[in-house]
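Query form — protein Pyrimidine-nucleoside phosphorylase

QUESTION: What is the three-dimensional structure of this chain?
INPUT:
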Amino acid sequence: MRFVDILEKKRDGHELTREEIEFFIEGYTNGTIPDYQASAFLMAVYFQGMTAEEQGHLVMAMVNSGDTIDLSQIEGIKVDKHSTGGVGDTTTLILVPLVAACGVPVAKMSGRGLGHTGGTLDKLEAIEGFQIELSEQAFIDQVNTLKAAVIGQSGNLTPADKKIYALRDVTATVDSIPLIASSIMSKKIAAGADAIVLDVKVGEGAFMKTVEQAEQLAHAMVNIGEAVGRQTMAVISNMSEPLGEAIGNALEIEEAIATLKGEGPEDLTELCYVLGSKMIVAAKKASSFEEARHMLKTVIEDGSALQLFKEMIEAQGGDGTIVDDPKRLPQATYTSEVLASQDGYIEKIIANDIGVAAMLLGAGRATKEDEIDMAVGLRLHKKIGDVVKKGESLVTIYSNKEDVTTTREKIERAIQISATKVEKQPLIFETIG
Ligand code: URA
Ligand code: CA
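ANSWER: The structure tokens for Pyrimidine-nucleoside phosphorylase are given below.
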């Protein structure tokens, strides 16, 4: 096989075979296909797209380029959840114990984050003693006994994706739906998922800026799942304003605890119900979303979801008493309020700018080397459409430095108030599967 012939075929819009796609992935991963040919390939895919079958072959070739996690010792259907990323997204922290309390085994491999706040792993490390490194056997044993564990990614998963992603970054081929879809799905499958529930975020604070783009991405991933025999469902949710109220690591752990008690913000709670119901149905622990929702409600009301969170923290070496007393989490030295400058209705809360404001306080990393300050962040008191009075607090800033002028100015610009009534934003635009 000559790679130049494959390039020509894709360039002219023809469908590639499994062997041709495997030839690309193997060759690029082991270095026999150089960057310049791989770049041409990615650009051809960018313009010509890929069929569902091609995307399925691409995903499995990427999965097979490295290690895979074998979760077969865990009983039951292993469902993974993935979010395409947003501001203040605390859902994973809540869903792991919530769904596990309904009997679904959740073996979660999570990442650190670059950006507004840390990733799920960073957030969990706001809990004193919490260990994110378990051996594969300890991880599996914990899921079998407790139903839930969250660890950092180990092993050499999907090296082809790492190499291709880096090349896409410098060849203007990141925003190609088939490439994004196969990148995400390959990582989920390599991590051992039997079924996958996707939260595709749309809006100013997300990767996908329009509902139409988000739909395309969601359908592409659901089709890939079908092509490779993994049941996949998707939810398209709003990220034009931040989710929930808290943005920050310890603050989001506290928010997760409140939500597991049934006292969380309405939007975050509802999204957890929708995603959690899908996870339970995918795991075949309920036959309808209504039945699944009822199960979720029950484990919140009887305290078993919160109890499971505490047990998981303790099993992984962490201080479980934070569940009873969240003030034991790292606390910021200073708090200050951002006040409304006029009466009216909240018109915009630009999610991305709010995220950057939290990052400026130290809640997230701008570069891989940055250290996160677990205690700092923001708490939003308003949502789009809410009534506001002049002088009322819009946001509380939690900081470890006295001067928060740049953060404050950023927040003031990010929140816009209208004198006339503003409609609330929908939380969920569409569910698929
Ligand atoms: N996230 C991923 O993991 N891959 C992409 O290609 C884009 C977003
Ligand atoms: Ca939040």
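ADDITIONAL NOTE: The radius of gyration is 22 Å.
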